[in-house]
Amino acid sequence: MTPLIQRCCDDLVDNIKKQSEGDSVIDMKEIASGFTMDVICSTAFGMQVNSQTEKDNQFVSYARRAMRTQVKAIFFLICMTFPFMKSIMTALFETPQFGGTEHFFKKVVSDILKDRNSSKIHRDFIQIVTEDSSTNDKSEDTEVHQGSSRFHSRALTEDEIAVNSLIFFSAGFDTTSISVSFSAYCLARYPDLQDKLIEEIDRTLGKEIPTHDIVMKMEYLDLFVSEVLRLYAPSTRFFREAREDVSINGWLIPKDADVTVCVYALHRDPEYWPDPDTFDPERFTEENKAKRHPYAYLPFGIGPRICVGMRLALLETKMAIVYMLQNFKFVTCHETEIPVIFEKGFLLRAENGIKLKVTQR
Ligand code: HEM
């Protein structure tokens, strides 16, 4: 999927150039959101929507409306407070009054599948799962053994492909936009660290086109992004259900209880993170990581339900940083909010945007 991301990165650089003309203040929250919309549309649906350049794309405006924070916040609040309401709320949210997101995505996927020409190579999520579906039987479950795991496997139906694309879309769009925008914020806030990163990029790449392998091998970039995802973990929490009664530090968690893991609090706990509010990428050197409890850092969750988009998200975030720093330096300005005020909600969004200035390199 790297070529798809590279194309979106080119548009990202052009967009920043345009928006910052005449020393204007840019809003990295807006800019990053256009970028990640483009990436998820091309990597999930094979659609080139150019939301960074064309503001009135029909798919983008519908998708943004469907992902509206307020509507989702009400949905989450009710489901978390009254778990038994989950199925009623899900049915209600599929009515046209609430956007009918699922129907919309089913239609999009069905149209894409109809239009697909088998001679053309697509490198997106839909292609991967449809190839699998065309070679496997959709009706029959086969038992698969993989290491110690055992599960039933069958090909996905068209509806299942559509709904999984929707999950892919909603889980991968806002989260990555937050990691890209807060990366720019941290670059501007800590100019010495920005220079260190620029030095690494210049040394390994210069003005060459960033590739997957080079970007993923950059050591300081990895430390930097890890620290961004500690202080600004896009998902402030994730959830589990207790499979049996368990006692932890004298607290009984009864079987079937809903358990929320508060990533935001965990990542700022002074027991694991000395001086937790200080931005310090060195916390993630191999030596320092080895001294810490492995579950003290969970931006992507952990275990069998760990984020499936983790590698894509890291690649996308790192690619965006490299492309941006090959062209610009970020600086804070009068309009930069320090510290950033967060929106209330499940995701760690900046309430008033992330206002920065850039200088050309
Ligand atoms: C920086 C970006 C991202 C962050 C911080 C993030 C974080 C998370 C977290 C915390 C979970 C819950 C894991 C758990 O319960 O253990 C999760 C699940 C998930 N994420 Fe991400 N995510 C990101 C990007 C993406 C992307 C780009 C995609 C897809 C393209 C994606 C798809 C998913 C899916 C499908 C799940 C559900 C997995 C399951 O339940 O088995 N995420 N993510």
TrEMBL record:
Its EC number is 1.14.14.1. Heme binds at residue 307. It comes from the Eukaryota. GO terms for molecular function: heme binding; iron ion binding; oxidoreductase activity, acting on paired donors, with incorporation or reduction of molecular oxygen, reduced flavin or flavoprotein as one donor, and incorporation of one atom of oxygen; steroid hydroxylase activity. The keyword NAD does not apply. Keywords: Heme, Iron, Membrane, Metal-binding, Monooxygenase, Oxidoreductase, Transmembrane, Transmembrane helix. Residues 132-151 are annotated as: Disordered. Residues 135-144 have a biased composition (Basic and acidic residues). The chain crosses the membrane at residues 73-93. It is an enzyme of class 1 (oxidoreductase). CDD domains: CYP3A-like. PROSITE patterns: CYTOCHROME_P450 (PS00086). InterPro entries: Cyt_P450, Cyt_P450_CS, Cyt_P450_E_grp-I, Cyt_P450_sf, Cytochrome_P450_3A. Its cofactor is heme. Pfam families: p450. Belongs to the cytochrome P450 family. Cytochromes P450 are a group of heme-thiolate monooxygenases. They oxidize a variety of structurally unrelated compounds, including steroids, fatty acids, and xenobiotics. This is Cytochrome P450, family 3, subfamily A. It comes from Mytilus galloprovincialis (Mediterranean mussel).
